[in-house]
Design a protein that fits this description.
Structural class of chain B: mainly beta
Largest sheet of chain B: 7 strands, mixed
Number of helices of chain A: 0
Distance between the termini of chain A: 38 Å
Structural class of chain A: mainly beta
Strand content of chain A: over 45%
Number of helices of chain B: 0
Largest sheet of chain A: 6 strands, mixed
Number of strands of chain A: 11
Strand content of chain B: over 45%
Helix content of chain A: under 10%
Shape of chain A: globular
Radius of gyration of chain B: 13 Å
Oligomer: heterodimer
Largest interface: A-B, 25 and 29 residues
Order of helices and strands of chain A: EEEEEEEEEEE
Radius of gyration of chain A: 14 Å
Helix content of chain B: under 10%
Number of strands of chain B: 11
Chain lengths: 115, 115
């Protein structure tokens, strides 16, 4: 029962280039999507989010795109920096109808940015 | 910048023993969550807590688990009789009300090892 899928377990990118991390979901009722960055032995750190009523949200080097018809979102990091190397988790939530927004996570994509 | 804190960072216990994991959420937040991550697996939702009661729980959160907010600042997760399969990283998270967005902020986690 994988409601949120990240099909690429790893991604390697050269410093300065664009990193594109992908995420697919199956539940069309999700109304909020988030990306988290995680280092080993630390908690997930919130990066950027997007509401289901939007198709793009930008914050500095990070942009999230949402394609509702395809049930697909992506995180673009440009330019990529070595410090961006971490595991990136996509998460989705439902925040209406009595639901309290618990996050459903993907399995993560390990990003390596090479100098 | 306010952050979620968790204690202890690492807890080792014997099977059948009770453990209490502690969290101090961000002070003005209203919604509180526990998640866990078994080694090599994805982050999984356990329980959400709002207005001094459980609002949602997953299938994992059985009768062996309980949560409490005893004093308006701490948020605890108790496992009554630990099993080997409870070994995992446990993360506490909190968020503000809906007008402030649906982003959840995570603590650094408690590594629980059941022997």
């Amino acid at each position: 029962d994988q409601q949120v899928k990240q099909n690429s377990p790893s991604l390697s990118v050269q410093e300065g280039r664009i990193s594109i991390l992908n995420c697919d979901y199956t539940n069309s009722m999700f109304d909020y999507f988030l990306w988290y960055k995680k280092y080993p032995a630390e908690g997930p750190t919130f990066l950027i989010s997007i509401s289901s009523i939007k198709d793009k949200n930008e914050d500095g080097r990070f942009t999230v795109f949402l394609n509702k018809s395809a049930k697909h979102l992506s995180l673009h990091i440009v330019p990529s920096q070595p410090g961006d190397s971490a595991v990136y988790f996509c998460a989705a939530s439902l925040n209406y109808g009595g639901s309290q927004g618990n996050l459903i996570f993907g399995k993560g994509t390990k990003l390596s940015v090479k100098p | 910048e306010p952050e979620v804190t968790q204690t202890p960072s690492h807890q080792v216990t014997q099977m059948g023993q009770e453990v209490i994991l502690r969290c101090v959420p961000i002070s003005n937040h209203l919604y509180f969550y526990w998640y866990r991550q078994i080694l090599g697996q994805k982050v999984e939702f356990l329980v959400s807590f709002y207005n001094n009661e459980i609002s949602e729980k997953s299938e994992i959160f059985d009768d062996q688990f309980s949560v409490e907010r005893p004093d308006g600042s701490n948020f605890t997760l108790k496992i009554r009789s630990t099993k080997l399969e409870d070994s995992a990283m446990y993360f506490c998270a909190s968020r503000n009300g809906p007008l402030a967005g649906y982003e959840q902020y995570f603590g650094p986690g408690t590594r629980l090892t059941v022997t």
